[in-house]
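To the team - magnesium ion complex, inputs and output below.
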Amino acid sequence: MKSRFREKLDKGQPVIGSFVKITDPAVVEIMGLAGLDFAIIDMEHGPISFETAQNSIRSAELVGISPIIRVSENDPVAILRSLDIGAEGVEVPQIRNAKDAQITASSARFHPQGDRGVCRYVRSGRYSSMDRKEYFRTANEKVITIGHLEGIEAVKNLDEIMAVDGLDILFIGPYDLSQSVGVPGEVDNPLVIKQMEQIIESAKKANKLIGTFADDITSAKRWIDAGVMYIAVSVDVGIFYNACREIATSLMK
Ligand code: 3PY
Ligand code: MG
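Output:
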């Protein structure tokens, strides 16, 4: 069965989610109950381990939100472990060239599309209770691969990265990109915006799906209008901080 995430993208509708750094699986569950399409369980930044991520994936499945793991680096083992514990997709930092993109694409799929390490005694293979052929076939069909373009090298090599089959979504990381153009953290700086707009235009011409991160709803709307189809809006800790801050500033003299 297709996830809501897949159905929306197939219909040409953008998918909306957020990053998760809090270790309690309730956070992903709440995001699902609120109607978000995906949760990116962040193992690049923050304290989340595979053991914790596995429980967050279980809670994602309870409420129909797609669990994506952002791995710490473009490492085939990190990618296969994320998929083995049940993530629907992997999001990989710092894709710089076609070789990086190829590593991500093939590490996430079994033969003949890739060389993902093979074990069916894991959660994604229902601990060996699933029919073998069915497991290897459906795993390749379902998986979503997302590669971060977040440095000038990636921008220079955009055409060769886009030519790699099997990288489903190209995700612009505005924060790392801002550092790469010399203005760390200034995600609204025209230097960053220009790079982002150029990547989006080239990707649209090549019929590639684009994703990005937005700090808030206003910025998310801007990128959706520009054609971004996978948009991560803020981070659990930031959302919680803003809500607490609003209570404090609204009610305290
Ligand atoms: C970045 O902006 O660099 C990211 O990785 C996502 O926010
Ligand atoms: Mg980044």
